[in-house]
Write a structure and sequence with these properties.
With about 300 residues, this protein is of the alpha/beta class. It contains twelve helices and twelve strands. The chain has three domains: about 90 residues, Winged helix-like DNA-binding domain superfamily/Winged helix DNA-binding domain (Arc Repressor Mutant, subunit A), CATH 1.10.10; about 100 residues, 3-Layer(aba) Sandwich (D-Maltodextrin-Binding Protein, domain 2), CATH 3.40.190; about 90 residues, Periplasmic binding protein-like II (D-Maltodextrin-Binding Protein, domain 2). Strand 8, helix 9 and strand 9 form a beta-alpha-beta unit. Helix 3 packs across helix 4.
Amino acid sequence: MDKMISSLDWTLIRAFLAVAEEGSLSGAARALGSSQPTVGRQVREVEDALGVELFQRHARGLTPTDIGHAILPSAQAMRDAAGQINMIAAGRDRAPTGTVRITASVIVAHFVLPPILARLRETEPGIQIDLISTDSTDNLLFREADIAVRMYRPDQLDMVTRHITDLPLGLYAAKTYLDRVGRPETPEDLLHMDWVGYDRSDLMIRGMREVGWKVDRDFFSTRTDDQAGNWRLIEAGCGVGIVQVATGRTSPDVERLFPDMDLPALPVWLTAHEAMRKVPRIARVWEALADGLPRAVS
């Protein structure tokens, strides 16, 4: 048994995991950046070493056998351990050079971070930045990103989080739209205007109901869940919308309506894995974000 286990290196376990999760050799090859024959050979090596069949072959691909299902959690634990080893090793890198991957929402990535990162490039030319602009959650544990800029406090274990600032929100509409329909004199007038909202998300609906506006999806005449697209629709004159103030002031073609209206702000959290937080290049980018974000939205 000891000889059997020692003959299984991480490359082979990684191939087994990829096939189990992707359901086919071709899918596993794409996920691993390998070739289908290579992945197939690696899976056969695992099966030969263990003396068991790990997959059932059928027309749609491959599914784990009972023994394949049984060893899958242990293989996933090996992957987690490998990720932790990589992070610990990377944490010993003391040089303030290299690449730092930042993930942020589309709007923050488009309208808030660029000037901060431009200043960082001036002061730290040895640090390269990969900016992941997405409204999905990237996994810091598996190094999909080094630092996350979140609008909520992450609750993953082994993460360092810091509340940096709050992003104020405002009501905005294009000047062309307001010139056409007239400017509202009271907040109640807004209810009789066109609005730009979300498609499947009910975030704006719930927020407006909390302040007493009984609206539903049909209240919004133009809808998209794409944050950047939502802003462009407002800017083009499709109606009134709720936008981060930092975004609204980037365009001379829009006006902020009722700036004294009390709207909830979006909290901004920085998050990094604790094993990576003190790596010099990551620490430097963290500091630049912690310093630049409050100033960018003030």
